Amino acid sequence: MSVFEQLQRRRRQQGKTLQSLASLTAMSVPQVSNVLAGKVDSRLGTIEALADAMDASLVLIPKHLLPEVARLLSGKSIGPDDVPSTVDRLLAGLN
């Protein structure tokens, strides 16, 4: 799923309008619409601003960790409770 599809899904889940996102990000409604539709080559800062306006964050995940992250997000167990998950190890490395 592309980042644009994820942002559109998040917007629908939160019931946010294009106008409300435009107000929160100081963008025009057409600009918000075009970014969410992936119709324009947007700067990362623009995409981050939209994510932030929807109480979300962009995170780069190394491809080899995607299966574990997907399992974690789906609610499936990834191992014993006393062992840090790959996601915990990944996020600890970001600090």
Description:
The chain folds into 2 domains: 3-53; 63-94, no CATH class. The two termini are 27 Å apart. It is elongated. Helices cover 58% and strands 0% of the residues. With 95 residues, it is mainly α. It contains 6 helices and no strands. Residues 7-61 form the HTH cro/C1-type domain. This is Helix-turn-helix domain-containing protein.
Largest sheet: none
Total of DSSP H or I helical runs spanning 4+ residues:
6
Please estimate the helix content: 55-70%
User: How much of the residues is beta strand, in percent?
Assistant: under 5%
* Domain unit count: 2
Short description:
With 95 residues, the protein is mainly α. It has helices at residues 3-14, 18-25, 29-36, 44-53, 66-73, 86-94. The chain has 2 domains: 3-53; 63-94, no CATH class.
Task: For this entry, give a set of tags.
elongated, Helix-turn-helix domain-containing protein, single chain, Cro/C1-type_HTH, mainly alpha, 95 residues, 6 helices, 2 domains
Write the layout of secondary structure elements.
Elements: H1 3-14, H2 18-25, H3 29-36, H4 44-53, H5 66-73, H6 86-94
